[in-house]
Amino acid sequence: MLRKRLQLGLIHVAVAMTLVPINSTLNRVMIKELAISATLVAILASLPYLFSPIQVAIGSYSDRHPILGFRRTPYILAGLILCVIGVIVSPQVAFLMADNFPLGLLMGLLAFGAWGMGYNLSAVSYLSLASELSGENERGKTIATMWFMMILSIILTAIGLSRMVDPYTPQALIRAFGVVAAAALLLGLLGLFKLEPRSGVSRSTVSEAYTVKQMTSAITANPVARVFFIYLLLLLAAILGQDVLLEPFGAEAFGMTVTQTTRITSIWGTFVLLAIIVAGLLEGRVSKRLVAQLGNTGALLGFIVIVISGILLNRPVFYAGVTLLGLGTGLSTVANLSLMFDLTLPGMVGLYIGAWGFSNALSRLTGSILGGVVRDVVTQATGVALSGYLVVFGIETLMLLIATIMLYRIDINAFRRQIEEPSFVEKVAMAAE
């Protein structure tokens, strides 16, 4: 299982690597060097999350339609190829936008759209495969391995990109994106090699063909699944909403230089990795819900400390908040994804993983909008830039508090009992009509 776990991690790494150049380096170039609207850049970068509803359909479709005997591999490969194409083309599209905006915008929608579609296609498929290949007792270790490798790869990819584009030129940027795309494709292919066993479709693996409306109803009709969906939305929107604001906040509140604010990400990432290792060691020894609650509470305290640091204008307090946020994020990520895998059933893995993937993507979109719009509105209303950041972090603290309370209502055994009741099928059918 160790080999398969590492291969699943390589696939996760490959897809994550394609996110780094677009969500960091290219965003900066488009907004600063090319003077393209930040709103437009945000919309293009959010296409994976706007496309996220298709994850439910993709997951269920792959459950029922294997290709050459494989139910996940072809879909993962197709998604990875789309991601790689998007990364290769995106910088050229950005320069085209600056020279010929209408044509560049059209090509940009196609390029970023391919990247966004590929992200959704591959993500739901490899998460479903991870659930299928890992037994219930192994899921936590699989998740910890995948996310540890992903975060490490993001750090290394960012370091490599910064070196390849120094000094910055359009040619250096295009070349760097090509190198990242090639590396992602190679790692993804290594991950897929002899990973999924070939098997046909049988009634034991596929119980019924659902329409999209019926699949949606299957989630909303189950009280535990419905609560977990909302819980994930609030939790991840709060934790991920700080991505675009933490470094600007450091500059605004403490006058940090670019080098100093860059270190914030490395500090956060280091403690996320440490927390993932701890979560992996706790697997099987401590309940998943307790680990999730510890992570949620740690992230909540992190936001509170960050808000206090802004009020006091105290840099050491700010670093303490970032540390707590990193630790909380790592513990919460592993534990909650393990819970997510537990809230699936044989023959319906793609359906539920797709739904949880949709919640994840929707939360990222919500967090981005929350972080940008609220910050701008509050800053405009008060005339004080720092107040905008503090209000956003305060809202995210409240969202985490609500999510922490909601976690007590998530009972996996109740979820399975509800699914097994004959009346549940009737409820789904009635809700879909």
How many helices does DSSP assign?
18
CATH 2nd-level architecture of the largest domain: Up-down Bundle
Element-level helix/strand string: HHHHHHHHHHHHHHHHHH
Low-confidence stretches: 200-210, 421-433
Spell out the CATH superfamily of the largest domain: MFS general substrate transporter like domains
| Beta-strand proportion | under 5%
Number of domains as seen in the coordinates: 2
Portion in helices = over 70%
- The Rg value, from CA coordinates, equals 21 Å
> pLDDT average, as an integer?
78
How would you sum up this structure, described in words?
By secondary structure, the chain is an all-alpha fold. The protein has 2 domains: 196 residues, MFS general substrate transporter like domains (Growth Hormone, Chain: A); 224 residues, Growth Hormone, Chain: A (Up-down Bundle). Helices cover 82% and strands 0% of the residues. The protein contains 18 helices and no strands. Helix 4 runs antiparallel to helix 15. The termini are far apart. The C terminus is likely disordered.
Summarize the structure.
By secondary structure, the protein is mainly α.
Chain-wise SSE layout:
Blueprint: H1 2-33, H2 38-45, H3 47-50, H4 54-64, H5 73-99, H6 101-133, H7 139-164, H8 170-192, H9 212-220, H10 223-240, H11 246-254, H12 258-282, H13 288-312, H14 315-342, H15 349-382, H16 385-406, H17 412-420, H18 422-432
Helix pairs in contact: 1-2, 1-5, 1-6, 1-7, 1-8, 4-6, 4-15, 5-6, 5-8, 6-15, 7-12, 7-14, 9-18, 10-15, 10-16, 11-12, 12-14, 13-14, 13-16, 15-16
